[in-house]
Specification:
Elements (H helix, E strand, L loop, with lengths): L1 H7 L11 H33 L30 H34 L4 H14 L4 H12 L10 E3 L3 E4 L2 E4 L1 E4 L4 H28 L5 H20 L3 E4 L2 E2 L4 E2 L2 E3 L1 H28 L2 H9 L4 H31 L11 H13 L2 H30 L5
Length: 396
């Protein structure tokens, strides 16, 4: 009986501070309080300093007249435009460079990454030399090279170099034809949207069919045929048409077409070439991560080399390629701010530069610029994480 009473006696409780769960919660609360106190001190100190200098805060400056010129915009810009329009102009120019750069760098990077693993000695060595040289030279120096050493040394307007498809290049940039759409072309956009929806539905059906029966459906060829058919019907039924306004050389300059300034061309070209070198290494590493047995199994099934790469190796390599590829997309978007060094009117140049100097609203301007890059980074990461989840291997 005495032994049973001893066993039933509760063990003495240890100190609350010895509980790891309690300590973890306490430390988090203390760190959060310290961070909030630090930012509160910064805000209070900033308000006091602004009051001492008789400066006010607020975003009312966005609705004042800017009074300066922007060399390149995607919409009509005059000196009477407002500061919020300057912000929009810089943002659209940044998005334009980021979108073109991401597409071009991805295509070039995948090509170079696969080329580095080619059995052809010349192709493999060329890709290796490209990657090792480009990624070890600072991006800013490369932008200076393409802008000052290449584009600025192009011939004058009257000696422009003619390229295929009525494209011309000279010291003032790249002259390309301008597409002109008629009023009925809106129905073509509707047809394009329907075609994309049909392709998504087809891809979903083909994937489920493959999982259920093991039979592969030619999704790519069928999608191309489906897209061309639906968009072609949109053109025929709506009677829409598109013409091209060609650039024509006159006495002192070109008339018609679209003039892409050399700053834009140099920035896109530099970002594409630089980022593609890093993407190529990501692609090479992803392909190397796929077991060689997968390639041998595909070869035993009689698949050609191109089909083995497209159907077996690349789909499995994507789970390794996508995480670092996301980082390269983010780097390219943020590196577009280096366009300010060669005079391209992107967000940092137009808003953080000219607008900040004229208005003196440092806090508001910097906060808006930081918010833009943070939002672009989060959206890009969210999309790539979603895509990564789609291509990830699912164990059964």
């Amino acid at each position: 009986m005495a032994m049973q009473d001893t066993l039933r006696t509760p063990a003495p409780r240890s100190s609350l501070f010895n509980d790891p769960v309690f300590r973890g919660i306490l430390y988090q609360i203390l760190v959060a309080a310290a961070v909030l106190a630090f930012f509160g001190w910064i805000v209070l100190n900033t308000v006091q300093n602004l009051a001492a200098q008789n400066k006010t805060t607020g975003f009312d400056f966005l609705f004042r007249t800017a009074g300066f010129d922007i060399s390149f915009t995607l919409f009509t810009w005059t000196r009477s435009s407002l500061y919020w329009q300057a912000f929009l102009a810089g943002l659209l120019n940044t998005l334009l460079v980021a979108a073109i750069g991401i597409v071009c760098a991805t295509l070039l990077g995948f090509t170079l990454g696969i080329a580095r693993l080619s059995s052809n000695w010349l192709i493999s060595r060329f890709a290796t030399v490209y990657v090792e040289i480009i990624r070890n030279i600072p991006l800013l120096l490369q932008l200076f090279f393409w802008y000052f050493a290449v584009l600025k040394t192009m011939p004058a307007v009257r000696q422009s170099i003619a390229l295929p498809f009525d494209v011309f290049i000279n010291q003032r940039g790249l002259m390309i034809p301008r597409p002109i759409f008629d009023e009925q072309f809106a129905w073509v956009y509707v047809a394009i949207a329907l075609a994309i929806a049909a392709i998504v539905a087809l891809s979903t059906w083909a994937r489920r069919r493959l999982e259920a029966t093991g039979q592969r459906f030619p999704v790519f060829i069928t999608s191309v045929v489906l897209f061309v058919t639906i968009v072609g019907l949109g053109f025929v039924l709506s009677g829409a048409g598109v013409t091209f306004e060609l650039p024509v050389l006159e006495r002192f300059n070109f008339r018609g077409g679209v003039q892409l300034p050399p700053e834009l061309v140099a920035l896109v070209f530099g970002l594409t070439i630089y980022t593609a070198a890093f993407i190529a290494e990501n692609v090479r590493g992803g392909i190397r991560a796929v077991s060689h047995g997968q390639t041998e199994a595909a070869q035993s099934l009689g698949l050609k080399e191109g089909d083995r790469l497209r159907l077996v190796v690349i789909p499995q390599a994507m789970r390794v390629i996508i995480p670092p590829l996301t980082s390269q997309y983010l780097n390219l978007t943020k590196n577009s701010s280096l366009g300010a060094a060669i005079g391209y009117p992107e967000l940092v140049n137009v808003f953080t530069g000219t607008t900040l100097n004229q208005t003196g609203k440092a806090i508001e301007v910097i906060a808006m610029t930081m918010a833009v890059y943070l939002t672009l980074s989060l959206l890009t990461s969210a999309f790539m994480n979603w895509y990564n989840g789609r291509v990830a291997l699912v164990e059964r």
